[in-house]
Amino acid sequence: MLAIAAAFGAWFVASMLTTPRQPATLHGGYLLPTVAASLIAAQSLATIGHRAAATALFSAGILFWLLIGAVLLVRFATGPELPGPLMPTLAIFSAPPAVAGNAWWAIAGPQPNTAHEVLLGTLAALLLPHLFLLRRYAHIPFVIGFWAFTFTTAASATYGVRLLTLTPSAPHTTLGWLVVALATAIIGGIAVRSLALVHLPHRRVKHVQPA
C-alpha cells in the first residue's frame, strides 16, 4: 500500500506540474493524495518501528502541505467562489495540522514538545473559521461531500485527546470525553443524513391479465 500511495502521489504531483488547470477546479481534496497520504504513511511506519522512514515521509507531507496549501489559499481568496457541493471540502483544508500531529506523536512518542505546540496553534487557527461558516454549511443541500468533515473531525479529535493525556487531570478527562462525544455526533449525523442519498430500486410489479 505504501508503494501504491507513493506512486499515486508522484503521478499526482507530476500532473500538477505539467497540466495547466483552471483555478476553479482546485479544492481541498488536492491535499489528500500528497499531504494526507504522506502523513498517514509516516504514522503507520513509526507505529511499526521504522522511525527514519517515517520522519522522511513526515517531512514530505509538511512540504506538500506548505506548497499545495498556499496554492489553495490563493485560489479561495481570489475566486471564483466554490460551488455549493464543494463547500464542505473546505474542511480538508483544516485537517493537515491534526494529521501531522498524530504522525509526530507516533514518531516522537507521547511527550510534550515544541512541535505539538506549533501544530496545536495551527490547528486552532484553521478550525475556528468554520464556526463562522456554519450558517453557509446549513444552507447547502446535503451532498456526499459532507463526508470531508468526517476525516478532519476524526483526525482533530484523536489529536486533541492525545494532547489532553499529556497532562492528566479531571478537567482534561472531562474535556476529552466531550471531544469524543462531539466527534461521534458529527460523524454519526453525517452517516445518518447519507442514508437519504441511497436510492433503493423500486420493485417492478407484474400485472397479471385477467383470463
From TrEMBL:
Keywords: Membrane, Transmembrane, Transmembrane helix. Signal peptide: none annotated. InterPro entries: SLAC1/Mae1/Ssu1/TehA, Tellurite_res_ion_channel, Voltage-dep_anion_channel_sf. It is found in: Membrane. The chain crosses the membrane at residues 30-49, 56-77, 114-133, 140-162, 174-196. It is a multi-pass membrane protein. Its main location: membrane. It holds the Pfam family SLAC1. This is C4-dicarboxylate transporter. It comes from Microbispora siamensis. The lineage of its organism: Bacteria, Bacillati, Actinomycetota, Actinomycetes, Streptosporangiales.
